[in-house]
Design goal:
One of its GO terms (biological process) is coenzyme A metabolic process. It comes from Neotamlana sargassicola. By secondary structure, this protein is of the alpha+beta class. Helix content is about 50%, strand content about 20%. The chain is built from 15 helices and ten strands. The longest helix is centred in the last third of the chain and has 24 residues, at about 360-385. It is globular, with a radius of gyration of 27 Å. The protein binds (R)-mevalonate. (R)-mevalonate binds near residues 85, 276, 277, 280 and 388.
């Protein structure tokens, strides 16, 4: 059977599934059953999900967990996290509790400006283009009025439009570099609509600009799109306490703080480590971004670009000990929304936002940054003390036991047994077999 098809998008959901299972699966009944198993019995809810994207055939579940006991600027939160990786939610909860007892997280939104660009080609006199831009700038704002007026009423809108000459990097290449304030909306639609309007105005007004030659009048728009690099949409999260207060049963505060700072310093200077270090931060960030219906790809792209802002990929977080006080902090760009997009559509996203007390975008930036910092703290704490595998292996053990449908008693016996034994798949399997044959 041909593995290609035309007109796939026109087929009904059932027809799509039939084609897929018949084309790609030996046991097509089983494949179909798995797909259908994940449909929601509530038809309206299912239709809602079907319509989020195109060619939907089923739902792909991710667990939604919660990490309680976060104190952020003295307000208590339980943070929802959608993530498939075990240990992340546990680590976040542990870090939350640890810092709750030491003053909690302190956060601050530094700036909220977002950027969009109209990329265009212009072949001609640069001075004339500058003159043209000066004249056309008010018109750009007037023509975008129908798009911007509601945002302006709420205090947001277009902050500035700059003409940028990029011809030293690429022949004939210029930009309208536009800054926006989009308040509680992530703002992608708003920004892109404004930019497309600017592009139209730019093109048509150039045709009427008398100083331009015929060739100069032919401004060529390449594209108009927001930027996911948002170094001016920045939030800071921090924890701090006396080094002595870091002391716990098997950990001496001063030694721990010094090793912790050393681990952060390594991530600051060594890109191989920085990537993994930042990945740990993104474990926390993405999970909350996803749970709150935001675009985690945009966040990832922007955050990693920010991690190289000085020319080398480096740690997003920083730590120091000064006068006996340990401080651990991070400043990251987060363009988030709490209105628009999925936030008003997805029932679980609405629930997650309500759990957080219906935050503004600014408040959500702070919560998300804290989730990232907490995750990073938990990872570094494990890595510099017990090692990461101890916790992971406990989860690994549970996963294997679940695969073997272990009973509660079996789980208890084997968890105890593996406290003093290295967890490996084969060791666990033989332990289950042994236990079962003895009973
Ligand atoms: C695993 O998902 C994340 C860590 O590797 C982060 C880190 O190494 O800092 C534990």
């Amino acid at each position: 059977m041909s593995k290609t098809i035309s007109g796939f998008s026109k087929l009904s959901k059932t027809q799509k599934i039939d084609w897929i299972v018949n084309t790609y699966f030996a046991d097509f009944e089983n494949a179909k059953n798995i797909l259908i198993q994940y449909w929601n019995s509530d038809e309206k809810l299912q239709q809602l999900h079907d319509e989020f994207i195109e060619n939907t055939i089923t739902n792909y579940y991710l667990p939604l967990g919660v990490a309680p006991n976060f104190s952020i600027n003295n307000k208590i939160y339980t943070i929802p996290m959608a993530i498939e990786e075990s240990s992340v939610v546990a680590a976040a909860s542990k870090a939350a509790k640890f810092w709750m007892e030491r003053g909690g997280f302190k956060t601050k939104v530094i700036s909220t400006t977002k950027i969009g660009q109209v990329h265009f080609n212009y072949k001609g006199d640069k001075q004339k283009l500058k003159q043209f831009f000066k004249i056309v700038k008010p018109q750009l704002l007037i023509d975008a009025k129908s798009i911007t007026q509601n945002m302006e009423k709420r205090g947001g809108g277009i902050l500035d439009i700059e003409l940028r000459n990029k011809t030293e990097s690429l022949a004939n290449y210029y930009q309208l570099h536009v800054s926006f304030e989009t308040l509680d909306a992530m703002g992608a639609n708003f920004i892109n609509s404004c930019l497309e309007q600017f592009a139209k105005t730019l093109k048509t007004e150039a045709l009427n600009f008398d100083l331009f030659s015929e060739e100069e009048k032919q401004i060529e728009i390449v594209m108009s799109i927001l930027s996911n690099y948002v170094p001016e949409c920045l939030v800071r999260a921090e924890v701090s306490c006396k080094v002595d207060d870091l002391t716990e049963k098997n950990i001496e505060g001063n030694a721990f703080a010094e090793k912790f700072v050393q681990a952060v310093n390594i991530a600051e200077v060594e890109p191989y480590r920085a990537v993994t270090h930042n990945k740990g931060i993104m474990n926390g960030i993405d999970a909350v971004v996803l749970a709150t219906g935001n675009d985690f790809r945009a966040i990832e792209a922007g955050v990693h670009a920010y991690a190289c802002k000085n020319g080398t990929y480096s740690s997003l977080s920083h730590a120091e000990i000064e006068d006996g006080v340990f401080t651990f902090w991070m400043e990251i760009p987060l363009a988030l929304g709490t209105v628009g997009g999925l936030t008003g559509l997805h029932p679980l996203v609405k629930l997650a936002l309500e759990m957080l007390g219906k935050p503004s975008a600014k408040e959500l930036m702070q919560i998300v940054a804290v989730a990232g910092l907490a995750q990073n703290f938990a990872a570094l704490r494990s890595l510099t003390t017990t090692g990461i595998q101890q916790g992971h292996m406990k989860m690994h053990l549970m996963n294997i036991l679940n695969q073997f449908e272990a009973t509660k008693t079996e789980k208890e016996i084997l968890s105890k047994q593996f406290e003093n034994q290295t967890v490996s798949h084969s060791a666990v399997v033989s332990a289950i077999k042994n236990l079962r044959s003895n009973h």
